[in-house]
């Protein structure tokens, strides 16, 4: 898929105020400081489409971007930042829950995890929550340039093993990415393109 346009549409604290167009929608979510904004900018080839920050937990809104005037990329608040207050964490969780359960336009979610770290309980719990809600999702391993190819493979296998322990028969689709090296860009966009085609061929789009 070639991206010819990528534009910011709106930010919201309420799911009901999100765009009403019946366009395919893809949500990107992950723990704070996982490199979500950098990944979005890499995918769209727009250096400052999504605002990056050295301060974890900055994304606190549902941010919609329209891509090729054809589908929405959604930047969701990060979770798991230790310095966020309990009240704010609860507000974020409620917002995320409502988004995933109410957005009928949503075709798939991309859960970002830092490939350098061992599988975190908070990520594994969120995967189970998505699966329990029957929300299709893929894993996106970020910051792969920080590891050698062999170490990347080992990291993916670690996730496979941890998910098996939790009862998963197989891993969801996954992508190994690096925002600084453009690694995984074509594969991820090709996946979205394929889902978009299947959606429209089904007569729903």
What's the gist of this structure?
Helix content is 35%, strand content 20%.
Beta strand count: 7
Mean pLDDT: 90
Number of domains: 1
Uncertain segments: 53-58
How far is the N terminus from the C terminus? 18 Å
Round the Cα radius of gyration to an integer and report it.
Answer: 16 Å
- CATH level 1 name: Alpha Beta
Number of helices: 5
Q: Could you state the order of secondary-structure elements as H and E?
A: EEHEEHEHEHEH
CATH topology: the name is Rossmann fold
User: What fraction of the residues are assigned to beta strands by DSSP?
Assistant: 15-25%
For the largest beta sheet, what order do the strands appear in spatially? Answer: 1-3-4-2-5-6-7
Give a quick account of the main beta sheet: strands, pairing sense, barrel closure: 7 strands, mixed
Report the CATH architecture. 3-Layer(aba) Sandwich
Q: Kindly state the percentage of residues in helix.
A: 25-40%
Label the structural class: alpha/beta
Description:
The chain is built from 5 helices and 7 strands. The two termini are 18 Å apart. By secondary structure, the protein is an alpha/beta fold. A hairpin with a 3-residue loop joins strand 3 and strand 4.
Keyword list:
205 residues; 7-stranded mixed beta sheet; 5 helices; 7 strands
Topology:
Blueprint: E1 6-12, E2 25-30, H1 36-44, E3 62-67, E4 71-75, H2 86-102, E5 106-114, H3 121-132, E6 137-142, H4 149-165, E7 174-176, H5 185-201
Parallel strand pairs: 2-4, 2-5, 5-6, 6-7
Antiparallel strand pairs: 1-3, 3-4
